[in-house]
Amino acid sequence: MSQTPLGPTSPSDHDDFTVSRTYSGYVLALLFGVAVLNMLDRQILGMLVVPIKAEFGVSDTAMGFLTGPSFALFYAMAGIPIARWADRGVRRSIIAIGLLLWSGLTLASGWVSSFGQLVVARLGVGVGEAAGTPPSHALISDFFPPERRAAALAVFTVGASTGVAAAHLVGGWVGEHWGWRAVFIVAGVPGLVLAALIRGTVREPTRGRFDGGARVPEREDWRAAVRVLLRIPSYRHVAASASLHSFAFSGSMIWYPPFLMRVHDLAQSEVGTTLALYSSLPTGIGIFLGGILTDRLARRDVRWLQGYAGVTMLAFAPFALGFLFLPGRSIAFASLAIAAFMMGASTPGIHVTTQALAPARMRSLASAINLLLLSLVGAGLGPFVVGVLNDWLEPRFGDEAVRYTLSLVALTAIWSALHNGLAARHLRADLGASDRGRARRDA
């Protein structure tokens, strides 16, 4: 089967930026830490839904708003401007500033005296976290050549699942013994240290160094850049798939803890341990192995970048339903572990396809558009829709309402897989067009 290359595999002849593999690995380790804290501070609320709801006397809908739109709307609004800044500015500094902002406000959340103050703090956390992923993706693309990029992006993405595991463990054990306010304090402090390390020790690489050292024009209308990206058929389907993927992930991760507390009657610390072992760990393994397998399959046929993601998302749905409905904790938790592995394995292809399709000068923007949709459809609507439906179904089903709501969320994975398949149909032609465009710019 013929193969379309993912791009140049060595730096531009004019690139004087050189680093060792060890240093590239060090930078990746720091960015891994960014991903951990990004997801830790985002997902920690899922473990705190029950105690915060009890203290402030609010509904599931209000908690859905706190965990979804209050964060996601500002995350989304800040995403594209920050990404455009990252496509022109010093990316290490942008990451460090964002990390300081979201970690500081997470820390401050431990001292709020009202539900409204907590909402305001989460708005600021959303703005800060918008500076995390797009510039990190762009840095990884300039530290790692295309044939190693999916694995590097997979390592970064494993940081997200590690952050979810940390949220489960910290939220469960610290929350049960010292209360929900202590959880925010413990979660906020590490980011202040990591921000200083990134600003002080990370070198800024030549932009587009594996793509002919692509230069960024002095002025470029971001709306025109968005139109360029959205004219790429496979990019449109990748963005749609990523949105639905995020809807399933975000809705599940925020509401699995209340599900386990309400339906399985687990204590908060038990929920944290259970989800860390049966959800976060398998997700991380799935992401890592999925990145390696995606790289290998894509060398044979680039359509596997999306084909593998589609197959694993299809497999996620029945096992997620098994977790929600199978009798007995052992078999239900085993089903959760398989579902989590499949969810993780589907992730690397989304990120590497976005980076491969986008011109070097638009990579942060391309990630930001994905994150805009992930935020509005996934992180924004996912938890909020579950909260609204919980309140709607609660008079009939009581504490079981969350089970039926989460089953609807699981089925969106099938819709996501459909877009993966459609993206795969266009991918070879679109990557070929992207390579020809790079060749014309370099000529």
Q: Which structural category fits the helices and strands?
A: mainly alpha
Find the count of extended strands (DSSP E, 2+ residues): 0
Total domains, how many? 1
Classified by CATH, the class is Mainly Alpha
Give the helices and strands as they follow along the chain: HHHHHHHHHHHHHHHHH
Silhouette: globular
Low-confidence stretches: 1-15, 213-219, 436-443
Q: Report the CATH topology name.
A: Growth Hormone, Chain: A
Percent of sequence in beta strands: under 5%
Distance between the termini: 29 Å
Structure characterization notes:
The structure is a single chain. This protein is mostly helical. It has a single domain, classed as Up-down Bundle (Growth Hormone, Chain: A). The chain is 80% helix and 0% strand. It has helices at residues 21-43, 49-56, 60-67, 69-86, 91-108, 115-129, 133-143, 146-178, 180-201, 222-230, 233-262, 268-300, 304-325, 329-345, 347-357, 363-397, 401-442. It is globular.
Question: What is the gist of this entry?
Answer:
The protein is an all-alpha fold. Helix content is 80%, strand content 0%.
Brief descriptors of the model:
disordered N terminus; Growth Hormone, Chain: A; 443 residues; 0% strand; mainly alpha
List the helices and strands and how they pair.
Blueprint: H1 21-43, H2 49-56, H3 60-67, H4 69-86, H5 91-108, H6 115-129, H7 133-143, H8 146-178, H9 180-201, H10 222-230, H11 233-262, H12 268-300, H13 304-325, H14 329-345, H15 347-357, H16 363-397, H17 401-442
Helix pairs in contact: 1-5, 1-7, 1-8, 1-9, 3-4, 3-16, 4-6, 4-16, 5-6, 5-7, 5-9, 7-16, 8-9, 8-12, 8-15, 11-12, 11-15, 11-16, 11-17, 12-14, 13-14, 13-15, 13-17, 16-17
